TrEMBL record:
E.C. no: 1.8.1.9
Cofactor: FAD
Reaction equation(s) it catalyzes: [thioredoxin]-dithiol + NADP(+) = [thioredoxin]-disulfide + NADPH + H(+)
Taxonomic lineage from the root: Bacteria, Bacillati, Actinomycetota, Actinomycetes, Jiangellales
Entry annotated with the keyword Disulfide bond: yes
Name used for this protein in its record: Thioredoxin reductase
Keywords of the record: Disulfide bond, FAD, Flavoprotein, NADP, Oxidoreductase, Redox-active center
Pfam families in the record: Pyr_redox_2
Keyword Transmembrane helix carried by entry: no
Family in the record: Belongs to the class-II pyridine nucleotide-disulfide oxidoreductase family.
Residue intervals of the FAD/NAD(P)-binding domain: 4-292
Gene Ontology terms: biological process: removal of superoxide radicals
Amino acid sequence: MRTMVIVGSGPAAFTAAIYASRAGLQPLLAASSVQAGGELMNTTEVENYPGFPDGILGPDLMARFQAQAERFGTEIVHDDVTELDLDTGVKRVQLSDGTVHECATVIVATGSAYRKLGLAEEERLSGHGLSWCATCDGFFFRDKTIAVVGGGDSAMEEAMFLTRFAERVYVVHRRERLRASHIMQQRAFQNPKITFVWNSQVTAVHGDDAVTGVRLRDTVTGEQRDLDLDGLFVAIGHDPRTHLVHGKLKLTTDGTIAVDGRSSRTSVDGVFAAGDVVDPHYRQAITAAGSGAAAALDAEAYLAALASPAPDGEASSIRPGQYT
Ligand SMILES: Cc1cc2nc3c(=O)[nH]c(=O)nc-3n(C[C@H](O)[C@H](O)[C@H](O)COP(=O)(O)OP(=O)(O)OC[C@H]3O[C@@H](n4cnc5c(N)ncnc54)[C@H](O)[C@@H]3O)c2cc1C
């Protein structure tokens, strides 16, 4: 039986693996067959990850995460987890090739998928003027003209944040009124740099090497027109990847995996969760990495308590800080 299986391969999973392998837990990390490396594989320059003053390409950063985890003995399998059996004390993790790994602890770090527009150009232009994260990429658009697609609170937040850099921010929304809360709408309406483009749907993104504009379709008249842009931010929501744990772990109303306070402990003993799959707010590489570290430490404390139970015999009575 294994001590730990980590599901995922983004900053949270690899950081959990670095901590767990340095603690001698010899984790197995299931990295996914097609999307190993997580969301940062879809971007170019990452300028806000500490330790890289000149920035680093997303895939290069993830290669470093992986190398560091492997250096301390993390075993990596490039396969998807298809089934988790979390009921019993011994957890069972099934891979798509049918292999089943029994283990004492599981860390779920499957991330969260940004919703896409569903256009063919999206993947090609991701990181080349097309982004899902204003906090990450706004800085690259100083004095530029950009558009945000969406009509909810997060679209308004992204648009307002982007006005710190951009000269003009269009908010493209397919209806004639926003879904955003009243207060967010008011703030966006009052911002002189924001222009609303109502009843409009993006049907194509123009640009060979970088975004140069979009094709818009009027959702009422069906008319098409082009809008010249330097960048496009898609803010139409995100879906925490919780399909493996539906009905097995408690979820929050945001759809993320519920954890106990600031810990990574889920509703099932021995199962921990980290990164964007637990985080509806921050969704950054550094916060995911920090949360992965916490998950490994929580799992380590759980295992230590299993090995030498407290007088009441309850492993779940462990609280953060006990591992120091
Ligand atoms: C285009 C883009 C640019 C970004 N730029 C920045 C930036 O500059 N700075 C920054 O801090 N943040 C940035 N972010 C956000 C950052 O990428 C995420 O916050 C971070 O990657 C979350 O890490 P995570 O480990 O929680 O999940 P993820 O990175 O999403 O990784 C989760 C992994 O788990 C895998 N997985 C899912 N299900 C399974 C399964 N069943 N079996 C095996 N594996 C599975 C997925 O395939 C994925 O590889 C960006 C995001 C995007 C989309």
